[in-house]
Amino acid sequence: MQKNKKYTWMTFNIKRGDIKVESTGDEKDGSERHTAFTTALKKSGTNRYGVIDWGEQEKLIFIAWNPDGSKPRLRMVYASVSENFKSSLNGIHEALQASSDGDISKEAFDKCTEKYKV
Question: Would you write out the chain's pLDDT as a tens digit for each of its 118 residues?
Protein backbone atom coordinates (compact mmCIF):
# COMPACT_ATOMS: atom_id res chain seq x y z
CA MET A 1 0.00 0.00 0.00
CA GLN A 2 2.67 2.50 0.92
CA LYS A 3 5.07 1.99 -1.96
CA ASN A 4 2.67 2.43 -4.86
CA LYS A 5 0.09 4.57 -3.01
CA LYS A 6 -2.66 2.95 -5.07
CA TYR A 7 -4.84 2.27 -2.02
CA THR A 8 -5.14 3.98 1.34
CA TRP A 9 -6.99 1.10 2.98
CA MET A 10 -7.94 -2.54 2.41
CA THR A 11 -10.20 -5.09 4.09
CA PHE A 12 -9.73 -8.85 4.02
CA ASN A 13 -11.86 -11.89 4.74
CA ILE A 14 -11.25 -15.60 5.02
CA LYS A 15 -13.00 -17.77 2.45
CA ARG A 16 -12.44 -21.51 2.24
CA GLY A 17 -9.23 -21.21 4.23
CA ASP A 18 -7.74 -18.42 2.09
CA ILE A 19 -7.39 -14.76 3.03
CA LYS A 20 -8.75 -12.60 0.22
CA VAL A 21 -8.93 -8.84 -0.37
CA GLU A 22 -12.56 -7.90 0.09
CA SER A 23 -12.53 -4.15 -0.56
CA THR A 24 -10.13 -1.26 -1.13
CA GLY A 25 -10.24 2.51 -1.08
CA ASP A 26 -8.15 5.46 -2.18
CA GLU A 27 -9.63 8.39 -0.26
CA LYS A 28 -7.06 11.12 0.36
CA ASP A 29 -8.93 13.06 3.08
CA GLY A 30 -8.45 11.51 6.53
CA SER A 31 -12.08 11.84 7.57
CA GLU A 32 -13.42 10.38 4.32
CA ARG A 33 -10.81 7.60 4.51
CA HIS A 34 -11.83 6.69 8.05
CA THR A 35 -15.55 6.64 7.20
CA ALA A 36 -15.08 4.52 4.07
CA PHE A 37 -12.73 2.10 5.82
CA THR A 38 -14.84 1.54 8.94
CA THR A 39 -18.00 1.17 6.84
CA ALA A 40 -16.32 -1.52 4.72
CA LEU A 41 -14.85 -3.25 7.77
CA LYS A 42 -18.25 -3.46 9.50
CA LYS A 43 -20.35 -4.08 6.38
CA SER A 44 -20.57 -7.88 6.70
CA GLY A 45 -21.36 -7.72 10.39
CA THR A 46 -18.73 -10.36 11.10
CA ASN A 47 -14.98 -10.79 11.53
CA ARG A 48 -12.55 -9.12 9.12
CA TYR A 49 -9.00 -7.87 8.89
CA GLY A 50 -8.17 -4.39 7.73
CA VAL A 51 -5.16 -2.21 7.02
CA ILE A 52 -5.31 1.57 6.85
CA ASP A 53 -2.64 4.14 5.98
CA TRP A 54 -3.21 6.65 8.78
CA GLY A 55 -2.07 10.09 9.88
CA GLU A 56 0.34 12.70 8.66
CA GLN A 57 3.18 10.22 9.03
CA GLU A 58 1.24 7.67 6.92
CA LYS A 59 1.67 4.72 9.26
CA LEU A 60 0.04 1.38 8.44
CA ILE A 61 -2.33 0.08 11.10
CA PHE A 62 -3.47 -3.55 11.04
CA ILE A 63 -6.93 -4.13 12.53
CA ALA A 64 -8.33 -7.49 13.56
CA TRP A 65 -12.08 -6.77 13.64
CA ASN A 66 -13.96 -9.20 15.91
CA PRO A 67 -17.32 -7.57 16.56
CA ASP A 68 -19.24 -8.36 19.71
CA GLY A 69 -21.75 -11.06 18.93
CA SER A 70 -19.80 -12.77 16.14
CA LYS A 71 -19.84 -16.55 16.10
CA PRO A 72 -17.26 -18.16 18.41
CA ARG A 73 -16.00 -20.55 15.73
CA LEU A 74 -15.39 -17.67 13.32
CA ARG A 75 -13.62 -15.70 16.05
CA MET A 76 -11.32 -18.66 16.61
CA VAL A 77 -10.54 -19.01 12.90
CA TYR A 78 -9.60 -15.34 12.58
CA ALA A 79 -7.63 -15.34 15.83
CA SER A 80 -5.65 -18.42 14.83
CA VAL A 81 -4.23 -16.87 11.64
CA SER A 82 -4.13 -13.21 12.66
CA GLU A 83 -0.48 -13.05 13.74
CA ASN A 84 0.82 -14.97 10.73
CA PHE A 85 -1.21 -12.84 8.33
CA LYS A 86 -0.06 -9.60 9.97
CA SER A 87 3.56 -10.80 9.76
CA SER A 88 3.16 -11.50 6.04
CA LEU A 89 2.23 -7.87 5.36
CA ASN A 90 5.15 -5.51 4.81
CA GLY A 91 5.41 -2.21 6.64
CA ILE A 92 2.82 -2.65 9.40
CA HIS A 93 3.61 -0.17 12.18
CA GLU A 94 0.83 -0.87 14.66
CA ALA A 95 -1.91 -3.43 15.29
CA LEU A 96 -5.29 -3.16 16.98
CA GLN A 97 -7.71 -5.80 18.21
CA ALA A 98 -11.14 -4.25 17.76
CA SER A 99 -14.61 -5.35 18.78
CA SER A 100 -16.58 -2.11 19.00
CA ASP A 101 -16.90 1.22 17.19
CA GLY A 102 -14.79 2.93 19.84
CA ASP A 103 -11.89 0.61 19.04
CA ILE A 104 -11.83 1.81 15.41
CA SER A 105 -12.55 5.50 16.00
CA LYS A 106 -10.37 8.26 14.59
CA GLU A 107 -9.22 8.94 18.14
CA ALA A 108 -8.12 5.31 18.57
CA PHE A 109 -6.13 5.47 15.32
CA ASP A 110 -4.57 8.81 16.35
CA LYS A 111 -3.61 7.41 19.75
CA CYS A 112 -2.09 4.36 18.09
CA THR A 113 0.17 6.51 15.86
CA GLU A 114 0.91 9.46 18.16
CA LYS A 115 4.34 8.11 19.10
CA TYR A 116 5.44 8.65 15.47
CA LYS A 117 4.73 12.40 15.52
CA VAL A 118 7.77 14.60 15.19
Answer: 656 678 999 999 999 989 999 999 999 898 999 999 999 999 999 999 999 999 888 899 999 999 988 999 999 999 999 999 999 999 999 999 999 999 999 999 999 999 888 7
CATH superfamily label, 1-19+49-118: Severin (3.40.20.10)
**Domains in the chain: boundaries:** 1-19+49-118
Q: Rounded distance, CA 89 to CA 92, Å?
A: 7
Say which amino acid occupies 80: S
Q: Note the pTM of the prediction, 2 decimals.
A: 0.92
Which pairs count as long-range contacts for 102-108, CB under 8 Å and 24+ apart, including other chains? 104/38, 104/41, 104/63, 104/65, 106/30, 106/31, 106/34
